[in-house]
Amino acid sequence: MESLVISDIRARAVIAPLLRPIRTASGSIEASPLVLLDVATEQGITGRSYLFAYTPVVLRPLLALAEQVAPLLRGQPVVPLARQEQFEKQFRLLGLQGLLGMLVSGLDMAFWDAMGQASGLPVVRLLGGEARPVRAYDSWGLVDPARDAEALARSVERGFRGLKIKLGGGSLEHDLATLRDLRSIVGDAVALMVDYNQSLGPGEAIRRVRALEPFGLEWVEEPVAAEDLQGHAQVRARSPIPIQTGENWWFARDAQRALSAGACDRMMPDLMKIGGITGWLSVMGLARAASMPMSSHLFIEASAHVLAVTPTCDWLEFMDFGAAVLAHPCQPVDGCVTARGPGLGIDWDEAAVARYALP
After folding, report:
1. Considering 166, 232, 273, 305, which one is annotated as catalytic?
2. Model confidence pLDDT, tens digit, residues 58-84
3. What pTM value is reported for the model?
4. Second label for 68, Cα 20 to 30 Å away, from 147, 214, 222, 349?
């Protein structure tokens, strides 16, 4: 494979519609604010990835940051580990987190995509594995079982083996009633996960988690503030249900801190925060050493590649924020997602990109 050399970085912002808006205890996500990244190379190959910005407020700052970072990369070879080491050195005093961490992680994914395209192979093959079906769960926000019953049942009909809903928008009694109704809709064979989105203190989290035990939950996710590792450890020590966290870890050192604190039973790093594919590989080693199940958070296209080579692979979260601007949106088959290529299998629907472009 010819060595690729970066010629330019292009970033575009869109606000794409969601098929299913996501309601959480912290607010609602009605549309998908995305930054689309294109890493152009002198060889004519373009690597692609996208960032999920959570709020349109940071779209323009991300675009400006990408514009400032581009000159640092022009003329550099597409070598993901070397480029990440370059960023770590250049921004050591600032640190890789926040918007900069998101951009670095997104560029890493685009680098891997470019290498896969150059070789004519899916990224999973570059990682030493093969594309295989990875079980997925359908990820919901806060639900109203009466209003959402048909849609929830359709998730099961589509073959999803697990469903996750958000809790924390009301009282414990409301949580219990929601889960009772949900079980009656989807049955006992479907794995159920719940996510409190950091909405509780440790004491209240312990009280609620204990009360949820009869529902046979797969996990309880981020019951307390993500950065409160001791709080998570306290809840975990008194919880009859596995505690899941990791989507807000920044790069591998955050994962190591959480593991050292005993903060979780399962981990679910976010590719946009953990350092992209290169960062995932580091954390994957930590998970294997700790025999800890590892799931993904968002970014289903890239997640299907890395989970396929993860020794402790658990679940892929199916929350499709990029579908509206992709030429070939990812579709689950029998409740599973399989990596596509070449590269990450990402191509933009340019007409949709133009339609949903940030004004």
Report:
1. 166
2. 999 999 999 999 999 999 999 999 999
3. 0.95
4. 349
